[in-house]
Amino acid sequence: MGKQKATRKVSVAKKLISKNDNRIKANQVKQSKKVKEVEEAKQHAPRHVDQTPSALFFSYNTQLGPPYHVLIDTNFINFSIKNKLEIYKSMMDCLLAKCIPCITDCVMAELEKLGSKFRLALRLAKDPRFERLPCTHSGTYADDCLVERCQQHRCYIVATCDRDLKRRIRKIPGVPIMYINSHKYSIERLPEAFGAPPQ
User: In the predicted model, what is the mean pLDDT of the chain?
Assistant: First the structure.
């Protein structure tokens, strides 16, 4: 067997703890003080509670009445085309009253982003009978826009086929949801809708 070569050790520097390390007692004391200050600030901060709208009688919304303002989501237009439903006429058949379909800038932006595949939906959305609602917030995420608008003004019905959006809107009392069920428009949480098929 050959003799093993002894390697020369390079001078190894001692490892030093940094001044801001949590293992140093003074830093631990500073950290605990910071945590206490944050907790105290939270306790003294005023609590924000959303004011309940005066139009609600329990979960029944007295503000809703004909002509109904219906906020339309992107996928609702696409599913209406797939099910060969004329939006304006089908809404009137469902609610048995005059409807004003409303489209926000975010929904229009979403339809434009979808490209040439959904150009028919975009052409439908530009119908002069549809009311355009301008958006003042930043970003173009339609779901957040619709939820925010419903919380501010409880005078809308939301038309959507999106499960997540439906779940979010159900948490807001007094906002009915319109969706497509067996090639017809149906509505949820609106007792006066006699044209809606039974659930």
Answer: 88
